[in-house]
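Sequence only, no structure available. Ideas?
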Amino acid sequence: MSLRVTAWRSRSRSVMFSALGLVSLTSLLGVAASEKQGPPEFNRDVAPILFRQCSNCHRQGGAHPQLLSYSDVHRNLTRIAQVLTSGSMPPWKPMPGFGDFKGERILPAKEKETFLQWIGAGALEGPDTEKPELPRFSDDWEMGPPDLVVTMQKPFQVRSQGADIYECFALDLGLDADRPIAAYEVHPGNRSVLHHSIIFFRNNETGAGNGHAESEYECFGGPGFTPSGTLGGWSPGARAVAFPHGVVKVLRARTQLVMQNHYHPNGSAQEDRTSIGIYFSKTKPKGWAIGVPIVEQHIDIPPGNRDYKLSTAFTTPVDIQVFAIFPHMHWLGKEVKVVANLPDDQRVPLIWIKDWDFNWQGEYFYQKPIHLPKGTRIEMDVSFDNSSGNGRNPNHPPRRVIFGDQSTDEMAVCVMEVEIDNISDAVALQKAILLQPGVSGVEGPKSEIKQAVNR
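Reply:
I predicted one. Tokens follow.
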């Protein structure tokens, strides 16, 4: 679980647990450990939970605060109690029952209760002999050495204080021929300040390379140009991403990767130089990964509206296998729900986020791909809060907000990563995508797929 500094600052001011409050919380939870074992202790009861659930992010050089020792945790007891009780940590946004996703960051109720009981009972350390071995972390590539590694041209300087930073970095790949990507991994240069990354394709030959020409520039929302596709992204706790077996994304010759990084200043000046490792397919592809965007661009939110709702839908003209999903809104986003309405009227839940937070957006991979037959209507419902009561509202006082990729604009987009196993279906799907208002540039044109097939 990742405890963001902003969460500490804003929430700890409004909801801070005093010692008396913790005692009250303990009584509510019913701290009643068995007489034989006694009250919970850090080394015996809490450290195993911490090392399993939290240390992957909250380790040395990782997200603040570090949580690897009794003293680390004891210094942050009040904050930990607050975020555990509020449910803001671990940071997992999808609602249960709306998609079975890999890598769920959900703390079981029993483990949360143990943690809070330990705090309320005095936060005892316990004997060192009962402390589990510290977790070991490796900075090696999870899937072995990549076929291609691309790195930011120079270290990016992250200031010590101030607002979060959104910066784009154009990375040249040096490829003169199309290549099929089977997997990728992002290696953060500085986990203590890098909050998340999103990686776009920019192919200058297709007309999709409009916008920024420089190698580094400020950006928010979108990358400042029409992408020819997306590779994926990174967020705390993320691992290497392998597409379903035999499925590839086609990387066209002379394509750039544009990496949009979100940095959060942590109180001291830092620098970051993140790398991306790419693994190419060594065999003939069995299918192609295509991003299917569902877009609602008719956004016009009056100032003061607390629950501005919009709905849109996309009907797939071919059978698809959905293996990942990525919703996207900005600061006014409140809720997003995506449901697939099958031709037989069966409804398949894809994702539901009731408390949208731009800072914790991400791509979610399903445990198993979801089959959606031809004629399935994929419905997206979103809502926004443009009132002064929305603490994330960038406008004070609130003002009218329309569709756009600036921080003061809004967006309503959900990209599904789908598998297609033949060229004709891929072309039909792309045509349907392009018929949506606001969509002008999708990955995997027919020529790219044909070239990949012939390799």
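The chain has three domains: 5-130, 148-285, 289-453.
Hope that gets you unstuck.
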